[in-house]
Amino acid sequence: MMTPVTLYRPVGGNELMRIIETGMAAFPPRLYWQPIFYPVLNEQYACEIAERWNMRDADGDSAGFVTAFEIPVSYFKQFEVQTVGLAHHQELWVPAEELTVWNSHILSSIRVTKSYCGKQYTMPQEIRVCLIQNGLL
To answer: Other CB atoms closer than 10 Å to residue 118's CB: what's the count?
Structure first.
């Protein structure tokens, strides 16, 4: 039996829409200026990013969401854990060109565990349905 590890990925509304378009099965390709994909190791850190960065990003859409998913621990071990601040600020750095392979290792559907929406955020119906399905609305 494959032992899974749970990881988290903070995303904005635009990235969540792209995940929904995959049937909650994969993360979208990185943008040209994003050389790494960085899932994080704990929900606390993911929540901090979603609330403090995604939701409050002046160029963003006033929304931040935390996604969770599992990958095999054997695949997880191929990546070095990076601590980028406080002790719980741990993430993996996956080169953007490896994201397709990364996505093929996701064991279950990507799910949304938390949402942070600013007062000016207009929630698309697809995200509303996703949050209902994940028990957040």
So the answer is: 12
